[in-house]
Design goal:
Radius of gyration: 14 Å
Structural class: mainly beta
Number of strands: 7
Helix content: 10-25%
Number of helices: 2
CATH architecture: Alpha-Beta Complex
Strand content: 25-35%
Shape: globular
Distance between the termini: 23 Å
Order of helices and strands: EEEEEEEHH
CATH superfamily: Photosynthetic Reaction Center, subunit H, domain 2
CATH class: Alpha Beta
Length: 129
């Protein structure tokens, strides 16, 4: 697997559909879960594979950082991303020791927690930026 790059701003290199930093994540009951703090992207193509959010804490401090695979969320509207997962279920998800250097084992544990295959989904070529 190619290494991932941690991105904290909606930079031009990202596809429009991946410019979700600052959006809010909502569950299936339309309850706000958290603000999206960052994304993890392919280091060469800037294709988004994971969202990074902070659950709990005050003003994004002291909470638990959670990584969500692309397969479990979708952009619904400007500023809004939806998932079928509840906040309470995400709290138990495994977290990487270092967000800027996720190991293959950590990534596989995260994907397994959400019931996904160990490998990232294939890149879709020719998608618009």
């Amino acid at each position: 697997m190619k290494p991932l790059t941690h991105i904290e701003e909606n930079i031009f290199d990202l596809r429009k559909m991946d410019r979700v930093i600052g959006f809010y994540l909502y569950d299936k009951f339309n309850e706000s879960i958290a603000r999206i703090n960052a994304i993890l992207v392919d280091s060469e193509t800037y294709h988004c594979y994971y969202l990074v959010i902070n659950l709990g804490g005050f003003l994004q401090l002291g909470g638990k950082t959670v990584v969500l695979p692309v397969e479990i969320w979708e952009v619904e509207d400007l500023g809004k991303v939806k998932t079928k997962w509840r906040k309470e279920s995400m709290i138990e998800a495994p977290i990487p020791a270092d967000l800027k250097n996720i190991t293959k084992i950590e990534e596989e544990l995260i994907r397994d927690y959400y019931g996904l295959p160990p490998q990232r989904p294939r890149l879709i070529k020719n998608q618009n930026k």
